[in-house]
Amino acid sequence: MTIAPVDERNNRPPLRLVLAPLLGPVTWSIFFLAGYLLAEAACQVGLLQSTVAGLDLLVFVVLVLGLVAAAVSAAGALWAYRRWRTAGDQAPEEDNLTAFLALAAILLNVLFTLATLMTALGLIFLEPCSWT
Amino acid sequence: MTTAAQEPSGTAPPVPGHIPTDKAWDELSTAEKMEQVWADPPGVLGWFMALQNDRIGARIMATAFFFFILGGINALLMRVQLASPENTFLTAQRYNELFTMHGSTMMYLFAVPMMEGFAILLMPLILGNREMPFPRLGVFSWFTFLLGGLLFYSSFIAGAVPDTGWFAYVPLSGLEFSPDIALDYWLLALGVAEVAAIAAGVEIILAILRMRAPGMSLSRLPVYAWAMLVMAVSILFAFTPLIVSSLLLELDRRLGTQFFNPDAGGSPLLWQHLFWIFGHPEVYIQFIPAAGIISMVVPVFSRRSLAGYTWVVIALVSTGFLSFGLWVHHMFTVGLPQISMAFFAAASMIIGIPAGIQVIAWITTIFTGRPVFKTAFLFVIGFLVTFVLGGITGIMVGAVPFDWQVHDSYFVVAHFHYVLIGGVTFPVFAGIYYWTPKFTGRLLDERLGKLHFWLFFIGFNVAFFPMHISGLLGMVRRVYTYPADLGVGALNLTSTIGAFTIALGVAVFIYNFLYSRRRGEPAGNNPWNGDTLEWAVGSPAPNYGFAHLPIVRSRHPLWEQETIDEEDDVLGDTTNTERMLQALSEWPLRWRAALITGAIDGKPVEVFRVAGPSIWPAVAGIALVTIFGSEVFALHWLTIVGIVVFVAALIGWHWPDKIPFTEKERAFEEEFNIPVRPNGSVTIGRWGMALAILLLGIALASFLFAYFYIRLENPIWPPDNIPVPDLLLPAIATALLLLAGFVMGWAVNNVRNGNIPRLRLGLLLVFLLGAAALAVIVWEYTQLPFTWELNAYASLFYALGGYMMLLLVVALGMNLFVQVWAWRGHYTELDNAAVHNSAWFVYAVAVFWVITFGILYLAPRLT
Fold first, then answer.
1. Whole-number Å distance between alpha carbons of B200 and B672
2. Taking CB atoms and an 8 Å cut-off, how many pairs form between chains A and B?
3. ipTM
4. B335 inside 8 A of chain A by CB
5. pTM value?
6. Which of B806, B819, B812, B805 is nearest to B842 (CA)?
7. Which tens digits make up the pLDDT trace of B671-683?
8. Integer distance in angstroms from the first to the last C-alpha of chain B?
């Protein structure tokens, strides 16, 4: 098995590709924390207590945040997919850092898009500040 | 290699870890000289100074195993008590103490240190390097861990054993219900052990990111290293809030602050939040490295590469993130808004996806491979069966309505033992059977190993499976007995028999280890036909790991590369990296040289000297435990002594021992176009400082979380008619600190240009500005119209301010240290890493203060 030299295959990828796998997880983390803290603020001290389009303002705000976060992660996945299409044919992933990072970015961003949507889903069915 | 590889002849050079030998230095071979350079010093003092990663890793693992035995004995005593209904073998109080000690031991003193010990022991070999980046930090970590653990267990001698569970919920753990020093033991002894975990975590992160073999890009990083990286990063984010929350509880107990007192605006739930922000990721901090071990063992014994490498890597990373979004699922019964519970229930379900990805990858690898059923592999099979069962019940208790039914029942006890013993202890044993030959040179006995496995596996299931049923029948946790008419007596007797079967299995393992260590079959370099780099060196591995650092061109270098010394298979063509590594195998022999590589691409970027043996890390560790231990007994004078010794030890630890930058270093640099740093790595220093700042930032975020949480609990802010704090003095302090930051930048620019007088002037000005800011803040606090005892707001005001004052004192101390060395002519335009590092600390403190100023002084004006 002949493997080309390290210097030729593993050229340093651009920083945005290195960070792309973390886009979805970080976006989900921000959404998760913001949504949770907003919910606590709304249910504890009465913040966001009006309605918008028939929805509680809290639900509306957190849903919008969730949709934005999911869109950001999905966009990250799409961007990574394009990079992977162009890089993926050149060499196997283990010898092709760009393809590896792009694939990792696709998978992580898709997973966290789903995670964001699933986290926000409860808002549609539950009474937000109903205490149990 | 030409000029640089030639070592001077004559007398032995000053070798840090020189071991006695009959031969003169000139008569030693290159390998023998290298062994001398990398050896730990002999004798009793040498024992305290020893820092070789394999020795420190083994010490940490042995200590963790010792605590595992203690925790196991606690469990056996509890099982004797529960073997029959209404038993009186233990009193309720003793039972409370035992379940507290058992849980705390296994969570704090066994699982995490064991995983970190594995990492420190193995990582340099797996990554193809010679040492960990901060070997002295490893020594410090081990001493603090060992002594912290012993301090914790000395509570038995003092007759004040912690008895509030491994979670120490308030108000039970507050002064009112736990007035003696038992809880102080829990908070302070375990607190110091947590410092040890963080110290080891920092070292592991840097080793994995910056000390890999050339060519080991992220796409070729062994899965085990990925797992350890995720674990170590998680430790920083999880353990820091625990240390902060422990500090707040200790302040409530000792100084009368009100963080957790609802009558004074505090909240007991704040403790639960801060604890579980640590407590749930803690489970994954244990499981993720265990999964890494499984991903190493499965391919070797299945004789094929791991299926879905990239999928497994993203599963590990996503588990690390998701694990921080689960903490409230331990609090479903405390009374929370539905929306909050929905958030955490969703995350609890989602985390099943990455776990499932890994399980599928392992099963696929096994089914498409040609498995060899050695003992290590049997433990993998045991892991898969038990962990999947524990994972399924985990998804069940992640569902809020089901959790309400089984909360605090034995169903939950069964669940988390399936996850933690199945998901952690089975992989630990798999790893021990797999890697022990590398460090002892001998295989563990297979016959005894299989006996160990079957006793452990059967005993485990006999012990814990019935707990699902006893829990569903209504048996509650943490209660020392149960009535006969509950109908769970037979189930409990079965569990007790299972627990003793587990103990028998562990006894067989101990015998096997001791027996095989001396009489086991010689292992050879690669007894399992492993694919990763640790199997390329001798067993036991030499002190220096690799004399000739390897070059990686595959995820499975020992399976797919014809040699590990070349960048390609083209004969007769040597690359710069090959020649540089060849030269590095022969030079330097006066100091411990290791290689820094790119975090992403694994390309060589720097040759540097790894720190050598020193007594100071051990002294620092002992002093730190003294500080915490003396506070258990409120011996403040001893605390002060401890602090003085600790600071002195830190200074001794970091005291520069300069090696002259000679023509040889210069020739090496020019010949191979790579920086040579005989006085320590600039890269490692910079990354270490970045991680230290990150840690301090996480601590600040933890304080701010507490601040906002308490804010939400208090409709009027500041409460109790406390006036909004005046702006003038803190604004002056802010201006002074920002100015200090700018002056520090000016000083750094000057040292870069070689203008040392201006560097000295700049450092002096920074000190004066920082000291003035500190004085202003202290003065401001002396003028406050309230004390920390008034209410939770006041307590938080003092806690945040106190934290910032502490950081300022540290920054001033660091500045003084750098100043001394600037005046002694230590720094040049090329050698000034410490100046840069202290500058980054000054910038960080300035930014942290601006945030604190905004929260404490400006925000109350806006709400």
1. 33
2. 166
3. 0.90
4. yes
5. 0.94
6. B812
7. 999 999 988 888 9
8. 70
